[in-house]
Amino acid sequence: MQTAIITLSPPGDSWRGAGEELEGFGFIAYANSRVEKLRDEGRYDAANKLKMYIRRFIAYLGKNEVPFKDFDALLIRNYHTWLKNQELGRNTISLYIRNLKRVYRLAVDDGLAADSNPFEGMDVSYRVKKDRNGLTLDEVKRLRDLDLSGEPQQVVFARDIFLFTVYTKGMRSDDIFRLTRKNIKNGHLTYCQHITGKEISIPWEQALQEIADRYKQEGTTRLFPVITAKSPREQWRQYDGILHRINYSLKKLGEMMELGYPLNLTVARHSWQNMVKGIRISDIL
């Protein structure tokens, strides 16, 4: 699961002076309104994650609404205990609670909830895991050399995207699927990270070219033309579906390699960051 808290936009003028329209809002209705706001801003991944956190809270409540006057410290402590009884990890529980806290603070800013702190005294900090799964250099080469001649194309594509991620020093999938041939110039791949806006430049190796050549299509400059929808919302849906299929196929590849843990694109990033960051890309190829 993603460990980063969803960043919600600060309240806008549309919430100011809403008065009677918002007076009857409970926590769930308000949280759902934040989901819609995220969608209106084109932040579909954040919207879907927040919706998931709300659904989990509703499952605990056993009903579809809780008034702000009943949203108190006892409710949150009991919810925290309920989450622990679901055998969820500490960081996952903290993620659920932190996102509820963020929504509640926005409701306070909008004048819908009392300026109290029902989360007071609850440790919801994220603890960095000491051990992160990542392939060794030999395992990366084993994955590269697997005979996939009898496997579906989506499994081959998943392997290629995993290797592309490692070869590009842990590039994120949302950046990979935005790449075009214009990003390649003078023997380097240069792009701006979608999340940070930071410009990254790495050598464009022959192995990267070979992977890109397998997915080259006429009529588009994208290196991996898998996102074809025009509307941002449909683009996100395509991306989300592709990501799930890639990770499903990678899990199968991990089982073929008998790794002992699920293989996914997060492992690809950790493989570079934690295992092979001290070597050159050419050492992997």
UniProtKB/TrEMBL annotation:
<keyword id="KW-0238">DNA-binding</keyword>
<dbReference type="Pfam" id="PF13102">
    <property type="entry name" value="Phage_int_SAM_5"/>
</dbReference>
<dbReference type="InterPro" id="IPR011010">
    <property type="entry name" value="DNA_brk_join_enz"/>
</dbReference>
<dbReference type="InterPro" id="IPR050090">
    <property type="entry name" value="Tyrosine_recombinase_XerCD"/>
</dbReference>
<dbReference type="InterPro" id="IPR010998">
    <property type="entry name" value="Integrase_recombinase_N"/>
</dbReference>
<feature type="domain" description="Core-binding (CB)">
    <location>
        <begin position="32"/>
        <end position="108"/>
    </location>
</feature>
<dbReference type="InterPro" id="IPR044068">
    <property type="entry name" value="CB"/>
</dbReference>
<dbReference type="InterPro" id="IPR013762">
    <property type="entry name" value="Integrase-like_cat_sf"/>
</dbReference>
<protein>
    <submittedName>
        <fullName>Site-specific integrase</fullName>
    </submittedName>
</protein>
<keyword id="KW-0229">DNA integration</keyword>
<keyword id="KW-0233">DNA recombination</keyword>
<dbReference type="InterPro" id="IPR025269">
    <property type="entry name" value="SAM-like_dom"/>
</dbReference>
